[in-house]
Amino acid sequence: RGEALASMSHVAHLTLTTMTEDSPCAFRAHYSDSKLVPGKVGESAEPKPCAGVKGTIVSIEDLFYNVPNRRKALKNPSEEFSKVVEV
User: Which side of the chain, N or C, has fewer Cβ within a 10 Å radius?
Assistant: First the structure.
């Protein structure tokens, strides 16, 4: 799991939101090019406290944004979505 997350952070914008059983709040961190980055311009890159539920949510956006050849191989959005639903 950790290796997959690291790999995804190289080719997509990744956001992790996590909250432990005994934590009063969740924390959110943003990654781009495998580096911790600010969620918004002018903010610190450190994970920020936020509202959340117990557990971890992984959000992937802009898949292959920095790998143009791979991005070109993607079909139209509805076709790609149907492939994801099959899994």
Answer: C
